Amino acid sequence: MIIGAPAHDPFERDRGGPATPLLTVKGLLKHFPIRGGALGRVQAHVRAVDGVDFEVMKGETLGVVGESGCGKSTTARLLLSLIDPTAGEVFFDGMKVGSPELSLKEFRRQTQMVFQDSYSSLNPRLTIEASIAFAPQVHGVPKREAVARARDLLARVGLDPVRFAGRYPHELSGGQRQRVNIARALALQPRLVLLDEAVSALDKSVEAQVLNLLMDLKDEFGLTYLFISHDLNVVRFISDRVMVMYLGQVAEIGPSDVVFDRACHPYTTALLSSMPSIDPDHRTMEAPLAGDPPNPINPPSGCRFHTRCSFVEQVCSSVQPRLTEAGPQHEAACLMVVPGSGHSKAPVGTGVAA
Amino acid sequence: MLVYLARRVVYTIPILLGVSLVCFALVHIAPGDPLVSVLPPDASAELQAQLRALYGFDQPYIVQFLRWLGRALQGDLGTSIASGRSVTTEVVTAVGYTLRIAVLATLIGFFFGSLFGFVAGYYRGSAMDRIASFVSVLGVSVPHYWLGMVLVIIFAAILGWLPPTGKGDESSLWESFRHMILPAVTMSVIPMGIVARTVRALVADILSQEFVVGLRAKGLTDAGIFRHVVKNAAPTALAVMGLQLGYLLGGSILIETVFSWPGTGFVLNNAIFQRDLPLLQGTILVLALFFVILNLLVDMLQTALDPRIQRS
Amino acid sequence: MAALAQHTLAAPAPAEKADGYWIGVWRRLRRDPVAMVALAVIVALILMAILAPYLAPADPLRGQSLRRLRPIGTAGFPLGTDELGRDMLSRLIWGARLSLFMGITPVILAFFVGSAIGITAGYAGGRVGTVIMRTIDVFYAFPSVLLAVALSGALGSGTGNALVSLTVVFVPQIARVAEAVTTQVRQRDYVEAARASGAGPVTIVRVHVLGNVLGPIFVYATSLISVSMILASGLSFLGLGVQPPNPEWGLMLNTLRTAIYVQPWLAALPGVMIFFTSIAFNLLADGLRNAMDVKQ
């Protein structure tokens, strides 16, 4: 900490020090009401995100994986308050978002998002440079300076400003548009970037280029990434740690290598075995996931995965497993990990079942 | 589906309430005293106050509205200031006349509109299609009151084949019908263009769908394909027809004026120029209610007929 | 940041400019012969209205009882004279002024009011949006002719009241379209991205929503001008709009009704003007819709 700087200055780059997580999420919850009947009353809730806790450390890339509908994208949108959470708290560098210490607007300046659909995420009526310069202008940067910054960022994401600044989105390819979106996200000089399926819609060759660009930019600007994707190969490539989500809850979280090589949660194992791999050593004999995930309106009781799990036992339908330590920095929400949970494969532990 | 239908009915209630509020307000946006046309010019203040109390104009608006609505629900729309007769009676009689030509016009418009639309959609891109499309633009662009005049000029003034105006001798079915032809044909132009456009789009869309291509590949005859097209296009086309009938009921005023046809338009015209506000209010309320309820019925019928329609 | 700005300021190369959206629309519209003919007709009508004092051979208001209802082709009166002996050609030319004004003005007014209401409802969404749209639905529940006649009937005859009535008729229709397109645009990721960058609703609507919704609303509004022309002249035809002796096509049609047995074709002339104007606006609106309906 620089001596003399006010302790609560949110503009200070690293306030809490390297040990404070950049992002801490506590009990994040989003239930969408389902209306029905003749009077349109609320009849049920979709539990899109159902009690999620996690941390993102400074400078790391946290990968988030899961099937579609597991709440990955909703989580990202909740973080930025693009949709209002039903419950939960978000801390940024130790400061509570929405508190006098850190306003939502300031948090949004420091946290930016890149969306999946590169076309829909650029205003078709604005030139590329105007799209990028928009956010800085919102935060009071004079237009001339904002445009200069936009052009510089275009160059940094590999697009020649002379050729691209005055163009409209429809004149660009998908990969080029996604580069523009990344430049747009960086225009506010954020510390955290949420990448929501940011490379999923791209061709494989373009995807690799954009991934490399993301890695370079991360080093160049000292960024932290929350990288959401359904593509496990990509997540493994880019992430330091991985969080696996299932039906709005965290199933497993841990260092990338550990989760990919020694997964504890049967869901993770199943997900990994459905992952296409050309390496024969990585082929598993586990049955891949069958069918669709259950309906998030009325999720299964107990462990949410028990309806599709090959290790299911009686206890799984009644006891909901908590995230439990399975190794260094590695946690899983499975009764086979929780000591003394009653599952036959659980460690006969000293701990008390949740 | 039942839930959807129920919700559709429930949703109509506030609309009906709003519509009656607008009709009620009509009298109060009118400039001047609503009593001015019944009061003798030299009426004493006492008499004015008496009449005001009699018509309830001395009450606050909300009380007036609730009273008026309560009476309207029992079928009492007040008394015509000009004729002194019950508004309900006058409106019901007029609606009967309007319905006659509106139904006839809808049938004519639907028949020819579907025919044009079908041919245009079936031979999409051909000269027939372009002619039919242009005719339907003419249909929606024509000032129908002028078309009515032109028809009168041709068939009554020049050729003398049909009577120009009025309802004719009602004891003679033939005479009545002859008087209905010109107004109904004029009116039929309004739905014709819209039905033609809708049917053309529907037919072209159905023909480009895979199941029709598949049926053709299986060697189904043109007649078989025709049946398929009709079956799939009918619900939407019928819905459009139903809605058009509603428009015609409410939109007949100009045509009825041209032909001096004693329907709702005629009544409205009189009510406006004699400043007969209760009659104006009552006629408009009845026509708007007709329109809203017709919309509701069409919507429900369409849902019932076409299970593919997803409503949420 | 300072270095960052310097980098580009040092090399202020002119960026390659792409054509804006409206230039593209105009280029496509120009290739549509039907729409261009329609546009030419409309421009001609507007010029006729503006230049009426120079084009009209006679005073449209002064008539002579001795030369009433002369047929088309009479020497000195190429389109004949009306029931008060006024020159028809002059009245038709002058009539363009009031007829076009009465037809176009309500749509312009309704475009502003309806867009404001619809965009507000669409962007706000939720309860506010629902309340606004339900109120709009009430007015939508009246057939347009009925609502126009009811309102101007209650307000009383006159051009001002007719304009107000017609505007009220078109506001709900435009508001509905505005609400629908705004709701669509609001769900686009660029609006989410703008919110995520901390921009307030007014800024987002100004920069990101307006440019994307005004086009479709505008096209819809042009398609209403044709209806509005017919309705406006219709109100005058009923005696509710423009008042005699002013020349207006609908009103002329009404006063000439009595003459259909004497000079049938003469009586139909003002309607031909309404018909042509209405067709031209309809075809232009169709062309505009096609020119804008290009997936970019």
Automatic annotation (TrEMBL), chain A:
GO terms for biological process: peptide transport; transmembrane transport. GO terms for cellular component: plasma membrane. This is Glutathione import ATP-binding protein GsiA. Gene3D superfamilies: P-loop containing nucleotide triphosphate hydrolases. Its EC number is 7.4.2.10. It comes from the Bacteria. InterPro entries: AAA+_ATPase (IPR003593), ABC_transp_ATP-bind (IPR050319), ABC_transporter-like_ATP-bd (IPR003439), ABC_transporter-like_CS (IPR017871), Oligopep_ABC_C (IPR013563), P-loop_NTPase (IPR027417). Residues 34-272 form the ABC transporter domain. It catalyses: glutathione(out) + ATP + H2O = glutathione(in) + ADP + phosphate + H(+). Keywords: ATP-binding, Cell inner membrane, Cell membrane, Hydrolase, Membrane, Nucleotide-binding, Repeat, Translocase, Transport. One of its GO terms (molecular function) is ATP hydrolysis activity. The complex is composed of two ATP-binding proteins (GsiA), two transmembrane proteins (GsiC and GsiD) and a solute-binding protein (GsiB). Belongs to the ABC transporter superfamily. Glutathione importer (TC 3.A.1.5.11) family. Part of the ABC transporter complex GsiABCD involved in glutathione import. Responsible for energy coupling to the transport system. It is a peripheral membrane protein. It is found in: Cell inner membrane. It comes from Enterovirga rhinocerotis.
From TrEMBL, chain B:
Its main location: membrane. It is a multi-pass membrane protein. PROSITE patterns: ABC_TM1 (PS50928). Gene3D superfamilies: MetI-like. Pfam families: BPD_transp_1 (PF00528), BPD_transp_1_N (PF19300). GO terms for cellular component: plasma membrane. The chain crosses the membrane at residues 9-30, 101-123, 135-161, 181-199, 237-259, 279-298. InterPro entries: BPD_transp_1_N, MetI-like, MetI-like_sf. Keywords: Cell membrane, Membrane, Transmembrane, Transmembrane helix, Transport. Residues 95-302 form the ABC transmembrane type-1 domain. The keyword Nuclease does not apply. It is found in: Cell membrane. One of its GO terms (molecular function) is dipeptide transmembrane transporter activity. Belongs to the binding-protein-dependent transport system permease family. This is Peptide/nickel transport system permease protein.
Automatic annotation (TrEMBL), chain C:
SUPFAM superfamilies: MetI-like (SSF161098). Its main location: membrane. Residues 96-285 form the ABC transmembrane type-1 domain. GO terms for cellular component: plasma membrane. Keywords: Cell membrane, Membrane, Transmembrane, Transmembrane helix, Transport. It comes from the Bacteria. The keyword Cell membrane applies. Pfam families: BPD_transp_1, OppC_N. The keyword Phosphoprotein does not apply. The chain crosses the membrane at residues 34-56, 98-126, 138-156, 217-242, 262-285. GO terms for biological process: transmembrane transport. It is found in: Cell membrane. It is a multi-pass membrane protein. Belongs to the binding-protein-dependent transport system permease family. This is Peptide/nickel transport system permease protein. It comes from Enterovirga rhinocerotis.
